[in-house]
Design a protein that fits this description.
The chain is an all-beta fold. The chain has strands at about 10-15, 20-25, 30-35, 45-50, 60, 65-70, 80-85, 95-100, 110, 115-120, 125-130, 135-140, 145-150, 160-165, 175-180, 180-185, 190-200, 210-215, 225, 230-235, 245, 250-255, 260-270, 275-280, 295, 300-305, 310-320, 330-335, 340-345, 350-355, 360-365, 380-385.
Amino acid sequence: MGLTKFAQSSPQVQFIVTSASISEGIGTYQIAVEILNYDANDTHVDVNIVPGGSAVYGTNFTYSPVTLTFPGNSPFDQFITVNVVDDHIHNPDRSFTFKLAYPDNNATLGADSEFVVTILDDDTQHIAFVPPLVDTVAKTTPVFYVPVNLDIPATTSTSVEVQVNAGNTTAVQGVDYVFNDTVITWDSAVSGTIMVPVTIIDDTLIEPNRYVEFNLINPTNGAVLGSSTFDLTILENDNLPPAVVTFIGSVDTVAQTAGFVNIYARIDNPSGSPAQFIIERDDSASTAVQGSTGDYFYTNHIHLPFGSGTSFDTATVQINQNTQVSPTKVAVFRLVPVTQNVVLGQDSVFLLYITNNNKLIVSFLGAGFSYPKDTTPVQVKVVLTSTAPVPVTADV
């Protein structure tokens, strides 16, 4: 309310302030009109919109022209309400003007008879790569499309640059792919996803998978970048030479007292891809008995080398010693591929012969015995130190 509202002369009406800036998401906004020099009679005044503002009726705001009534002898302000439309479109701030008109009761318009409303845009555009932000493409695919999205439109065009980050890219321009840094543009009143093409080259080189990193930079129109990095893997599809695994040697002979012995394997892996194989027992082909109480003890050994070139693997076999006399026995070991990129070389079977060094000893049980002369026939006991795989005879 104004400071002077007592009846001294003709009533006067005007806006209390002359402007306001409001967010387009505010919904509704009220504007106060005051009366000065009120009297005993009602005073009316129209509140209209001045043509020519940048805000568009029905798009940025709605308002129905009204006539305000100030009751007689009342000092209170009256209010008009404007509805602000949130259009969800990025655009410049918009404005329009209210004007008081046609007061009655001999009232006049004050100096502040116009009120400027500025609607502040609160819509921010966001530009981002569309998830997933990591993808793969076969080398035989002619074109791959990288999706870039703008979430809301604007009243003017919006653009962003898509570029390759060479520092994080292993693919070679012109050899693995073709892509030149490019600016993409959404026209005014347009949003959504633009598919950015990348040409994929199907070469005949045998090589690892290649990577390309794309970045979004330099958005225009005040747009904000969201997910601005996209990683593309170009999958190698040319046949890589397999890894070849073989035993180093195919036969070895050890004594029963050997303790621990090693079996050696070699793998030649030109591609460098993980190549897994097993050095395993072949119990069906072995005469030696496996186990903690048998002739030897061995748990199948798995090997997974990485990297290209030649590498070696060692498997350890425990030889068990016992007191039995037996012929030489053989433990058979085989190489078994696990991954598909492993093939067997020439020596894929290894024979480990275990010789027995135990000897049979025949002796009397005791050095001598005495018996009375009338004793019935007595036994002279002869013992053998251990069992034997064949019959044993001895002359007494």
